[in-house]
């Protein structure tokens, strides 16, 4: 019995190994986490301490109060000066909140945040702004500020990559807004590993979050992304911050989309539109016209739908091209759409609509670089493919909204009234919608289609 107790004690004191991405624990080191399948994320962890059966009570930092007596001033959002960014944040940035802005290199993250720092400093209500860069020199940031006309006496700039130095700048400037570009370049001497590593990123982010909560200072962190488009670093990084924003854009297009992935103070599905030019980032308050190509002559293979990003309806044009091929296996190319849903629409058209494309090449894309993943675009995709196949154009004043099921039925989608109102505002007066969608706004005539055959019949009658 004593030998068994000693062996149990040695096993309990043996260090374990834990994945830094998902927290899965294993008995020995492995190169690939068995849970999340991530490579080189398993690190040695100290043996777990035995659970305490009784915890002594301590003095609370602040006494508990009735919820009606809690002060709301500390939770009110402050405008950043950029309406599109405020829309995604839920009205502005909350004091003490930590936001993470991620995006590919060269998409315009630094340019956007430099404009945010300039607007904040020019506002004067929230105090000076401090922009800390660890990737560029102060002279490089100054040149960008001159090019984008972002110079202001209350905008302070520091080029530091050491965490204590960053905190020293905060003590000296006492800013109302802190921007760190980027969190992967800042390092702490108290943490092991190289800058950008899992341990360093976690330690730096934890320290900045504690600083923000202690002083009520809004902090914006710039983060890198991996090849898959996910936020680089440990998964716990997204859990530590309050807001996670994704800045997206194509290198061959000036359009930039800011999406909210996580937001503790507002909606997490809003989107903001920007345009990057020689003079910096410009916000686009009415982007619907960017995603629709209005032509004088009607062309087969085009259909217009209305997407809803958060609370904002956006018109999107779907284009399809069905053409014969000499290849054994016809090609399928998709841009801006979900390839799985396009393949499903081709199968439903073949089975339920007698529109066969198995021996022809099919190309489907959106206009303006917009990414459409909402099922409400199914009807527009199906009509665009059928229009190209039959060489019969849709009327230029018609939009199509609805989800197509595998049985060919047209299912209802949310916010149909808001979608139709946006279409009517831009000059569309006819719509193909699912049945039982509620009242239709004035200025547009809606035709209910219950299945794909009735939608194709309306196309053929046209």
From TrEMBL:
Outline the segment boundaries, as ranges, of region: Lon-protease-like: 361-462
Q: Which UniProt keywords apply?
A: ATP-binding, DNA damage, DNA repair, DNA-binding, Hydrolase, Metal-binding, Nucleotide-binding, Stress response, Zinc, Zinc-finger
Cross-referenced CDD domains, in alphabetical order? RadA_SMS_N
Which terms under GO biological process does the entry name? recombinational repair
Provide the Gene Ontology terms for cellular component: cytosol
Give the location of motif RadA KNRFG motif in residue numbers.
262-266
Presence of keyword ATP-binding: yes
Please report the stretch or stretches of sequence annotated as the RecA family profile domain.
74-225
The record's section on Pfam families has: AAA_25, ChlI, Zn_ribbon_LapB
GO MF terms here are: ATP binding; ATP-dependent DNA damage sensor activity; damaged DNA binding; hydrolase activity; zinc ion binding
- Domain comment? The middle region has homology to RecA with ATPase motifs including the RadA KNRFG motif, while the C-terminus is homologous to Lon protease.
Q: Which family does it belong to?
A: Belongs to the RecA family. RadA subfamily.
Q: What does this protein do?
A: DNA-dependent ATPase involved in processing of recombination intermediates, plays a role in repairing DNA breaks. Stimulates the branch migration of RecA-mediated strand transfer reactions, allowing the 3' invading strand to extend heteroduplex DNA faster. Binds ssDNA in the presence of ADP but not other nucleotides, has ATPase activity that is stimulated by ssDNA and various branched DNA structures, but inhibited by SSB. Does not have RecA's homology-searching function.
HAMAP family cross-referenced by the UniProt entry:
RadA_bact
Q: What is this protein called?
A: DNA repair protein RadA
